[in-house]
Amino acid sequence: MLRNFVILVALFSTIYCYKTYDGYKILRVNINSADDHQNILSLESEDVQEIFSEGRSGHSDVLISFQNFPRCQTYFQSHELTYSLVSEDVGAEIRKERQGLLLAPQIAQGEFSYDTYHRLNIIYEHLDALAVTHSSNAETFNLPGETFEGRKIQAIRITTNVTSEASKDKPLIWLDGGIHAREWVSPATVMYIIDSLLGEHEKDKSTQMTALLDEFQFIIAPSINPDGYEHSHVKDRLWRKTRKPSGCKKNKYNWFGGCFYKRCYGVDPNRNWSTDWGRAGVSTDPCSEVYPGKEAFDQENTRIVSDFLTPHKDKLKLYVTYHSYSQLFLTPLGYTTAEPANYQHHLKVGACGDAIAQRHGAKYINQRSAALYPASGDSADWAHDVLGLTDSYTFELRPDENSWKVGFELPEEQILPTGEENVDGLLALIANIEYNNDV
Ligand code: 0X9
Ligand code: ZN
User: Fold this and answer.
1) Does this model's pTM top 0.90?
2) Of 15, 60, 317, 368, which is most buried with the most CB atoms under 10 A?
């Protein structure tokens, strides 16, 4: 009875507070030249398209409302852009996922599961519970500072003898998830990696995990854009950015100092880091999905993470950030197609893709970030250039480019296999980092 009531209330809030995306379509637009790419970006600032979904190799997936569809078709024709229909009704996909979430069984405090996507409090409570159960190998802490909406970025430090002072000098591996709000499988995968390092899962790898924990300290933050993540759960499933007010659409103000078109929120946190900030793959429109902010690190969450990592520079041996989707292993650099000096090494570590494929057959392509599309100000480039770290990578998790309707809504039954294959991928990656090989 109570459960039915809860579901009714949730459905009511779904209808009245949640962006429905009814009648929205996703189109896959073929990109054959830099002009095509630019035309897609312009389409966004003309308000014809609601979300600029990243330009993949050879195409760009764009989300378009029912009302804007005819204008969009005209625009495509006049710019000689061809496209195919990927999703007829995004709203239906979102409703389906949301119903599944509402019906997911409740879990006890501190518990976690990989059959549904969890809210931030469940993630943080599970980290704390792990630190209690594995008190000699794990401790949780908040990175200093608060996000714009006043949330903490919680991290877990995992290493043998975690309370000893000496453990703080060990070589450091940093992993983060959730920099893009809607990429829900990213925090879930990072949580699975944490559980596995502590022997909650992947129990057959205990010898390997113990050796890793003896050698390294891991600091792992599963959700480094918590404001955006919560927003994507309660208001807008396809939210990507942070939540800080960013200005007015097209930077147009009215006579009274308000916005001429509409107020914009959020900055793309993966364009907000200082490396080559604001140049490639960005838009100056504060409403854009790839708006990099007014300046580097003007978002609390990117500032918090960079301030935390900078003093650890000398200890840091590996930086990995988890995104979705497309199944890619992206190596530096992302802002220029010029080959970095350590490119041969990056090719070698790309072998982690084989380990991933061996688990469940999913193929992750090894590619230089800029070959996906050049974009300035991403976190992995910052770790590579500013922290001087050769081993700095971005994973794009499941699904691949073709087997999906709404790529960010990975079906729940794929959460676990994604976690499993990425434990294998990470172990293979660590085996090849410079620190372990003296390259
Ligand atoms: O665009 C991004 O920030 C990443 N893709 S996503 O779909 N998760 O948004 C890719 C970042 C790769 N870096 C560069 N191309 N610089
Ligand atoms: Zn992303």
Assistant:
1) yes
2) 60
